[in-house]
Design goal:
This protein is α+β, with helices and mostly antiparallel strands. The chain contains 5 helices and 9 strands.
């Protein structure tokens, strides 16, 4: 083959090769589109399933809501559990909300107590800072579901003087020589109330973060 013919052949081969490469590169686009469509369909299906479960949890039938809560927790699926607890926190049935509160607390290694400081003068704020501060963390050392007791110290048995005691939607907090107080779960799913410095009897509005 003459040199000129070889040159033309080479150009044609390179052009064909480039076209083939473009074809190979372009081909996944169709596949990706199909994959995205399937993914969206799966998302829509799951969203519908979760929405249906949340509707049951927050619906007017307390027996069905409690059953749904139990079934969702029994799956062992983390997302399912979090969905159940989150929805139950603001459910209409108090028993279900109480269950959600306990299930939230019993899975924690610690709690964060936040004291409302608005309105405190310099002296009161200084006393608070010397006590436990506006934000404090309390480790949970043991859990006793039968009595719904969460120890803040020790682990052998429920410590009456160092614990969180859960009763329905209410929590009593005590740490001997330091703090005592009571908080309740609101209809909005917030755990709020008051705590007292046992040394000077100063009382502060407080919240325990649940998420």
């Amino acid at each position: 083959m003459r040199r000129r013919d070889m040159t033309c052949f080479g150009r044609a081969l390179r052009a064909a090769g480039a076209a083939a490469i473009l074809c190979v590169v372009a081909m996944p686009t169709t596949g990706q589109e199909v994959g995205v469509e399937a993914l969206i369909a799966d998302i829509d299906e799951r969203a519908g399933q979760y929405a249906a479960l949340v509707e049951i949890l927050q619906g007017p039938d307390p027996a069905r809501a409690l059953a749904a809560f139990d079934v969702m927790l029994e799956t062992g699926d983390k997302t399912m559990r979090e969905t159940a607890i989150s929805a139950a926190m603001t459910a209409t049935d108090e028993r279900l909300r109480a269950r959600a509160l306990w299930e939230t607390l019993v899975r924690k290694d610690s709690i964060t107590l936040v004291i409302e400081t608005d309105g405190l003068d310099d002296e009161a704020r200084g006393a608070l800072d010397k006590w436990i501060g506006a934000v404090s963390t309390w480790g949970i050392t043991a859990r006793f579901p039968d009595t719904q007791c969460l120890n803040l110290w020790n682990s052998r048995s429920c410590e009456e003087d160092h614990n969180l005691s859960v009763s329905g939607l209410k929590i009593d907090m005590v740490y001997d020589g330091t703090i005592m107080g009571g908080l309740s779960l609101t209809s909005e799913g917030a755990l709020t109330g008051h705590v007292k410095n046992v040394d000077d009897n100063a009382v502060y509005p407080a919240t325990i973060h649940l998420r």
